[in-house]
Amino acid sequence: MTSEIPVPHPAPTHSVADDVLGILCGTIVVSIGLFLLRAGGVVTGGTAGLTLLLDYATPIPFGALFFAINLPFFLLAIRSKGWGFVLRSALAIALVSVFASFHALSGIGALGDIALNPFYAAVIGSVVASVGVIILFRHGASMGGFNIVGLILQERVGWRAGYVMMVGDACVVLASLAIAPWPVVLASALGIVVMNLIIAVNHRPGRYVAITRGSARSARRS
Length: 222
Prior knowledge:
The protein is mainly alpha-helical. The protein has helices at residues 16-39, 46-57, 62-81, 83-103, 118-137, 146-156, 161-175, 182-202, 213-221. The radius of gyration is 17 Å and the shape is globular. The termini are far apart.
């Protein structure tokens, strides 16, 4: 027989130092996951996946595309999640853009230009990226796009963010059929299932009780 772990009330809040370290660690982990996905030619979901899709087809730098695609979703987040969440998410996206570009450099210890098997890249890259996304969620930030939609619906309706994100991600992967061969699309589909299942299992209401101060005020308003 097991007993439930008591949840403190009110829930504990992160300090500023907690959130700074969490966002820094989360963005580094996400950027490595995205680098692995790109090295395998795999399209992942969300705005990151849409950015990768456009990055394969256009000469526009990944960082610039990634930031621009996320802008409309911030308008939705301002009202529903508050300015604190939006600013932390914008910072996270900017950091991932910088780190992802840094990993692609040759020399100075960076990863450089490597090629990976698509299925290996899809699974390992998705596992790594999902861990980073969960860290960001738990520190009141996100990677924008479908992350924002998933978090809002989880809070308002009770749908798990991971499952909501999986639907949007599937649309992005299906769109990749226009430029990618079917084995790559299949690997990409495997990747989004792995990533969003990990998020759905590990980030759900009641699973993690510590919250960011700005998120606590936003939750009370909603």
